[in-house]
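In keeping with the milestone schedule agreed at the kick-off meeting, the structural modelling team has produced records for the first pair of proteins. Each record is given below as a sequence line and a structure-token line. The laboratory manager (R.T.) confirmed that both were archived under the project's standard naming scheme.
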Amino acid sequence: MATLTQTLAVGVIGALAGCGITYLAMTGAHSTKAEPTIIAPQPMAERAEDGRLAVYLTAEERAHVREEMIAFLQGLQTASYALADSDRDLLLETAQDISKGAGEPIGRTIRQKVPAPFREMSQTVRHEFGALADMANEAPVGNLQLQFSTILSGCAACHGSYAVVEQQP
């Protein structure tokens, strides 16, 4: 019965976190963290065909974002497997890799173009992977699962809020 209770708690906490992140993205509320120093002026938010907020990027930038999302998904799958198999070493390695990011020049260009809430959500997901890495060796499995759920909530909130649309020349 404790497993069912824990599962329900993870679901409720994950849903609340996702709602909170979505609220922050939709209202443009800022966190207490220091703002990045290089931010391009942002146009008024437009909606994509499906109603999500449109983020306009070039074809090359859009391809980069897709590659990053695939890397996140692959990392989530590997972390999920590591949790199920109680493989703390694999969980640590995977979470550390994703928390760092590639740091490519195109990524810096994209960060300057996208709306601040979009950028903050991406940074938060990387930060949450870092927290998972910090916990990997010693935290109880239930706490690791809650952290994993928090990461998934951030992914769901971002994908539910934004659509990356190719910028027309």
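The second protein of the pair:
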Amino acid sequence: MRKVTIVDYGFGNIFSVTSALKALNYNVILTNNSEEIIKSDILLLPGVGAYKPAINKLIIMNIDQAISQFLSRGGLLIGICLGYQLLFEESEEFSITRGLGILKGRVISLNNFKNSTDKIPNIGWRSLIKPNGFSSLNYNTGSMVYFDHSFSPVSSDESIVSSYILFGKNKIHTSVDNGQVVGFQFHPEKSGSTGLRILDSVIKKF
């Protein structure tokens, strides 16, 4: 049974993520220990809450450095929701805050994309759109997944964007995949069979 290590730093929706992985028959390890993180093969960074206190917690606990060393070893890193946003260079939430800088791009408010009919936060189910009809992720255009967010990353590298949604009249990035780092703005662990299939395919192809 393959093992997935979840970073337990006080900002993650641990129960839902753990339940989803166990439903997919993965062995789950919860830890904030740097040595365990570094030696992992598959690492999942969850996240619920505000950007600045979350990144500060990772830094105080030296988890940011552990993640860097983990990636140097060649492991697969998966970020979900706030955990996905933290992968980028910076966020404008409340004030400009530096992130982990693993992916190029920044996290901006959904106010940049909304029209008069869109509500923020974006809570609920929306359909995914494949970039140019193709995605590295296992889903069909129109697949419904669950969101709960007020900010969204904009990647500087369109080639790694693996899904979009329409928000207002704009397509916004909702997942990325560069082969070693995969991130989801939506919650695959709360998106029923579609979310489980996407999460399972990411882990199995690594």
